[in-house]
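Notebook entry, structure prediction.
Reason for the run: the old model in the group folder had no record of what sequence produced it. Starting over properly, with the input documented here first.
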Amino acid sequence: MRYIIPVTLGVVAFVYGLIDCLRSEPSDVRSIPKAAWVVVIVLLNVIGVALWFLFGRPQYAAAGSAPAQRSGGQASGQRQQSSGRGRSVAPDDDAEFLRNLSVNRAQKLEAERLRKLKADLDAREAKLRDDKLREEHPNDETKK
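New structure, fully documented this time:
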């Protein structure tokens, strides 16, 4: 009974590490090829998973890290291409996304400003029409 927790943690770590290795892009895996990492994880179980996390797992987070430099020297805020698939970056790190946010915000503010100007213009035109009608027919108001 006292071995259940360590065994369960070992099995969970093994399954997680194996799935993580299988789902990573072959071009992003460090040290040895991806197939070799699968063999190491399967043969060495928990030790293989620990080695995977320390030496084989791709590192995506650091700016200017090896994956960004390997993919052609792109800035870390841009989308990277590996094996024909785009890898997303966090929205707050994506310069294009932030630019689009500011453009959308500016467009909404301009649309709101134009709506208010149109409403003001319509109100002024209506007032001028009413004033013109009163000037043309001054007796209509006294009959009411």
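Summary: The longest strand covers residues 80-82.
The old model has been moved to the deprecated folder.
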